Amino acid sequence: xxxxxxxxxxxxxxNGETSVGARQDPQGEQPVYVFGAFRLLRKxxxxxxxxxxxxxxxRALELLLVLVERAGEVVSRAELERTIWPDSVVEDxxxxxxxxxxxxxxxxxxxxxxxxxxxxxxGYSFVAPVVRLGPDAAPAPASGARPLPLxxxxxxxxxxxxxxxxxxxxxxxxxxxxxxxxxxxxxxxLCLAAELRAGYADGACFVDLALLTSAIQIPDALAASxxxxxxxxxxxxxxxxxxxxxxxxVVLDNCEHLIEPATAVAECLLRLAxxxxxxxxxxxxxxxDGEWVLRLGPLACPPDDPALGMEEALAYPALQLLASRAQxxxxxxxxxxxxxxxxxxxxxRVDGVPLALEFAAAQVGLLGVHGVVEQLGDRLRLLxxxxxxxxxxxxxxxxxxxxxxxxLSPDERRVLRYCAVFVGPFTLEAxxxxxxxxxxACVVSCxxxxxxxxxxxxxxxxxxxxxxxxxxxxxxxxxxxxxDPERHPLAARHARYTLALLEECExxxxxxxxxxxxxxxxxxxxxxxxxxxxxxxxxxERALGVRLAAAPAxxxxxxxxxxxLRRHVRAALDAIDAGAAAxxxxxxxxxxxxxxxxxQHADWAPYERAVAHADTAGRPEALAEALHLFAARCEAxxxxxxxxxxxxxxxxxxxQAGLARALALARRLPAASLHMLGEHGEALxxxxxxxxxRAPLRLATPVGFR
Length: 706
Description:
Blueprint: E1 32-35, E2 38-41, E3 46-49, E4 52-54, H1 58-69, H2 77-84, H3 92-106, E5 116-119, E6 123-126, E7 131-133, H4 159-168, E8 174-178, H5 185-196, E9 204-208, H6 217-226, H7 235-243, E10 248-253, H8 259-272, E11 276-282, E12 291-295, H9 310-313, H10 317-329, H11 340-349, H12 354-374, H13 379-382, H14 397-406, H15 410-419, H16 428-435, H17 440-452, E13 457-459, E14 466-468, H18 471-481, H19 487-507, H20 514-535, H21 542-549, H22 552-555, H23 562-577, H24 584-595, H25 605-617, H26 620-636, H27 640-657, H28 660-668, H29 670-676, H30 680-689
Parallel strand pairs: 8-11, 8-12, 9-10, 10-11
Antiparallel strand pairs: 1-2, 1-7, 2-3, 3-4, 5-6, 13-14
């Protein structure tokens, strides 16, 4: 509720507009309420949709007046009944009947505009934004637009973007601010319009398309925002004549659900009125003639750095917003040093999305910063707002994303769900691999369409474009995926694609030093964890999990921590014991990974099977690796003669097959066995003759020889 400024009784604003919350009228003044494309004339007791009157019964109209005059508040059933039916006893169903009639007249319903909300156990609330104009008399065409809506949230971290927009408008008459839902497009557009309106002779006009449901309502909404009444005249014709000589900035907000008619209106404004500039906000570009698109990203988050101080961290706008909104929610809150790591984690977990940060801040008073972070596993449930004055779709993250999801084509919805299996960035090749056969033709266009609609972000800086979903979007898509009957075949395709990535990483081992290799392979880790968890979880494919856990790039590197790796290796061996199909070489690798320093009573069967299977199958690479594993196992058990014999055979296999890497190892490693057997002279001779560098082998060298 707005508080009237001093010297302005009743909350009346300049040129006749007042806030809805200030209801004291000067003697004789009767207001006009504007919401969506509707106008409600209090004195005349009439409701108009554009120029057309809406037929309503007397009780329903009185009920609407009470709710509109107290917009944003909850009015109890008892209070409504006392006001509408004074000194009368009414049946319980009577109020519901009139509310139903009102909703029908307003087009209020699921998937449509929301005006009247039922608050269970409390009453009803008018939830749409309401502008209160002057007396009932039809206003004459004004010399400027109505005042802009008040901005209730601050603009943080957008200075560079605002500078860019200020520079763009003089030379680009149509600028569209595009971004993910809740990213702050409307706040930025309002800030820009408030700054620039003084430079336009006729000011700035704000048209909110969010509550409109059809193209025919847009001209009426524009006329209402300008304070014009058609008075029986064609709305379009009146707008064309009135706007033609004007010098004005027009903001078209929330265009995405009416993208084509909004584009037509924007192009018409630019064509008919050379003095009019247009700023639009949408989740996708208008694709209008002469449009300049500015994509708005999340707020910058502090790095996950324990050494970061409070002052340095608060220089990041995401943390600034979280701290300021948490304090507004609970006046006693102050972000302290003990809360800083959790606050930084919270900012990063919600990807710096302003609306998500505001939702999270609203929970800090109840749960504390650490409590909110602990509850973020279910981001879509936790992050919701109790504010009744915001648009219904902005009250929870789920509602926000439901709105975006409903605007997608069936193919785009499917690709969004399927690409949510990726943890981190993915390529078009990856998307094609997981979406599956028969969909290749539409995958590229769908991914690009999702980028256009701000549900997927694109990074085109490298040689291959990479795409990524914001965390909240991925959480929503995974939630949708849980209902998809294709989720298990999808997970299997993702696991196989991850296995292919691991094999690619293994091939690059010899071309990069260990640090560079880890940096390149790091993008696989998240997908590897997800694939392993699925494979060894309910409904997963254990055989695929065995192949993933036994991959040389996993066992021979530090992609996973030691404890995590051992957990997956044990799960893979348990799966083999339970009957999961496995290559004997994979089984040998897994046993070797867990063997440690076991003595002569170790289980030799896996190594023997691996050698025999590779030999029978005529696979020299697999045979060389199996012999290497067997030799290493023998040496760990103190069986140096057996180890030496296996390495000699490995050298023969590698020489015959031309396996240079395996041959180098086979010629160098026997020296250790001979040394332990006391044959020191022969050991020194082998060391001197061994090809390759004399430096010790890297401990992280994978056991494979591809």
